[in-house]
Design brief:
By secondary structure, the chain is α+β, with helices and mostly antiparallel strands. Helix content is 23%, strand content 36%. The strands form 4 sheets. Strands 6-7-8-3-9-10 form a 6-stranded mixed beta sheet, with helices on both faces. The radius of gyration is 25 Å and the shape is globular. The two termini are 27 Å apart. 36% of the residues are buried.
C-alpha cells in the first residue's frame, strides 16, 4: 500500500457473532484511500460498507487485519483519539442547543477557548452557507440546513478524514441532487479526505474520485467512476451500476481489438475482451441501453414497450428468440419518441459497446 494513503485497510475481516450464528460482514478486505480524495464505498444493504466505515471510525474492532491512519495502526485507539469525524444519516444534532452551540460543542470539549471556538463557528457557518443562522435551534431548520450543521460540526476541528454514512438519504430528491455538488465543493475547499458510504449509484458516480463497489463483504471493483461504469469486471458490478442488458453469446473469432460474438437471436456484437475465453466459448456480454441505436424498417426486432422519461424514451425490443433488449434513445426536439409499440426496427451496436464479463 502507498505510504501517502490517508486510510488503509489491510486484510481486514469482521465477524459478528459466533458458531452457527456468525456473520462475516467483511472478508479479507484491503484498500488504500488517498490523501485529499473523495472516496465512496458503494453497495447494497449488508455488503459491508458501513462496517468498514465503523472500523475506520473506531466504533468496531476488526476480527483480523488492521486499520491504519497515515500509515499508523489505530486498532488500540478509541474513536475520540483518531483524527476522524463522522456525519451520520440522522445528523445526531443536539435539539436543545443552537446551531452555534452544536458546532462549538466538540471544540470546547477539546479545551478550545470560547472566543476561539466562536471564531471557528463563524468560519464553519460561512463554509456551509449558513451565515446568520447560528442562533437557531435544529427544529427551526430545513433538512438540508440540518445536514449542513452536521457537516460544519464534523469539519470544525479539521479532521484528517471525514466519514459520511449515507448523509443524504433523509433528503428529498431535488435537495439530494443539490447537496451532491455542495459536498464535493466542500471536499475540494477543505482538502480533507472524504469517505462516503451510499447505496445510491448516481451519488457515487457524480461525486467520487474513486469508488469501491462492495458485495458480500468484499470489494468487487475499485476505480474511477468512468472505469466502474464503462468497464465493469463482473455481472454484479454491471448490474448494480446503471441499467444493463445481459446477452448470452458465443465467441466466433477475433476482429481487430474485439471478439465477434453472436447471440442465439443471430445478433452480432464486437465485444471488448475480458478473461481468457477463446473461440467457441459461451460468454455473457454487458451492453448499456444508451449504447444501442435503433433504425426504422429493420428486421432485427419489434418494439414491445416504450417508457417516456422526459429527455429520453426507454424501448423494450423483442428479438426473434424472445430475447429482450432495453434501448434508451433521446427524444426528438418536440419531445416525441422516435418509435412506437409494434414498430419493426433494426439494431446497431457499435464496436466495443458490448463488454465480455469475467463471470
Amino acid at each position: 500500500m502507498a505510504d501517502s494513503a490517508a486510510v488503509e485497510a489491510r486484510g481486514v475481516t469482521k465477524i459478528f457473532g459466533s458458531g452457527h450464528d456468525a456473520v462475516r460482514a467483511l472478508d479479507n478486505v484491503s484498500v488504500a484511500i488517498r490523501q485529499n480524495e473523495f472516496f465512496t464505498l458503494l453497495g447494497p444493504s449488508g455488503c459491508g460498507k458501513t462496517t468498514l466505515l465503523r472500523l475506520i471510525a473506531g466504533f468496531e474492532q476488526p476480527t483480523a487485519g488492521e486499520i491504519l491512519l497515515k500509515g499508523k495502526p489505530v486498532e488500540h485507539l478509541p474513536p475520540y483519539q483518531r483524527a476522524v469525524n463522522t456525519v451520520f444519516q440522522s445528523y445526531a444534532l443536539f435539539p436543545h442547543m443552537t446551531v452555534a452551540q452544536n458546532i462549538s460543542f466538540g471544540l470546547e470539549m477539546r479545551g478550545m477557548a470560547r472566543e476561539k471556538a466562536a471564531s471557528v463557528v463563524e468560519e464553519m457557518l460561512a463554509l456551509v452557507k449558513l451565515t446568520g443562522l447560528g442562533g437557531r435551534k435544529p427544529a427551526q431548520l430545513s433538512g438540508g440546513q440540518q445536514q449542513r450543521v452536521a457537516l460544519a460540526r464534523a469539519l470544525a476541528n479539521h479532521p484528517d478524514v471525514l466519514l459520511l454514512d449515507e448523509p443524504l438519504s433523509a433528503l428529498d430528491l431535488k435537495l439530494r441532487q443539490e447537496m451532491r455538488g455542495e459536498l464535493k465543493n466542500l471536499q475540494r475547499t477543505t482538502g480533507i479526505t472524504f469517505i462516503f458510504v451510499t447505496h445510491d449509484q448516481e451519488e457515487a458516480l457524480t461525486m467520487s474520485d474513486r469508488i469501491a463497489v462492495m458485495s458480500k463483504g468484499q470489494i468487487q471493483q475499485l476505480g474511477a467512476a468512468i472505469d466502474i461504469y464503462e468497464r465493469p469486471v463482473n455481472r454484479f458490478v454491471a448490474d448494480f451500476i446503471g441499467d444493463t442488458n445481459f446477452v448470452d453469446a458465443t465467441i466466433g473469432g477475433r476482429e481487430g481489438d474485439y471478439w465477434r460474438c453472436r447471440s442465439a437471436s443471430g445478433l452480432d456484437f464486437l465485444a471488448s475482451p475480458a478473461g481468457s475465453a477463446g473461440i467457441g466459448a459461451k460468454v455473457t456480454l454487458a451492453v448499456r441501453p444508451e449504447k444501442i441505436t435503433l433504425k426504422p424498417g429493420g428486421v432485427a426486432g419489434i418494439v414491445a414497450q416504450t417508457v417516456y422519461i422526459g429527455t429520453d424514451t426507454n424501448y423494450e425490443v423483442r428479438l426473434a428468440d424472445d430475447m429482450r433488449l432495453n434501448v434508451r434513445l433521446q427524444n426528438a426536439v418536440d419531445g416525441r419518441a422516435q418509435f412506437a409499440v409494434g414498430d419493426r426496427v433494426g439494431i446497431e451496436v457499435p464496436a466495443g459497446a458490448a463488454r465480455m464479463l469475467q463471470d
